[in-house]
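FW: tagging you since you asked about this chain on Friday. Here's the raw sequence from the shared folder, copied in full. Didn't touch anything.
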Amino acid sequence: MKYNLRIFLLLLGVLVSSFGTALHTVVAQQITINSISSQSDHQLFDNATKSAAKNAKTEELRAFLTSKYDYWDARVLADFWGETVEEAKARMGRKILWGSTNIAILDQFLVDARLQALRAVKLPRTADDSSPYKFYRDSTYNYNDAAVLAKFWGERSAIDAKVRIERNLILGNDEVIEEALKLARSQNR
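HL: got it, structure written out here
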């Protein structure tokens, strides 16, 4: 009987050991499945977050594009805020979407940004001084346009006209420049 008891205990030990190994394997598989599921959930969450952010930015840009503001307003504010023009457009759109109080704040930011930009506009000090006019350089206007406008506006030189173009762009008066250029060209024919 001692012999049978030993065999029984040995078999019971093997059975318990096998059951423990099987249980460990099942638990490990479940942890792996949960880990993969958790990673998938995180990935889904990240993708949903990115998609929501993209949709929000699209809405912000749409709000900007359908507003009274234009590229030059965004350009001035981009410099003021230290952002890209695209980021400034989105930020402006966000303020527009948030309502009239934020639009009033946006308008004040625009005034402050224009004043700061206007203070920075100066004539070049030397002939080697490369064009200090950030807005003029971003525009489609060239030296010939500046020369034509200098004559039309009664400025001393094309450089003086560049200063005036720069100031008008800062103030959001690009249509004034276009109209003056059109009139100046028609008078030169």
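FW: Residues 33 and 67 are 50 Å apart (CA to CA).
HL: agreed, and The longest helix spans residues 2-65.
FW: great, closing this out.
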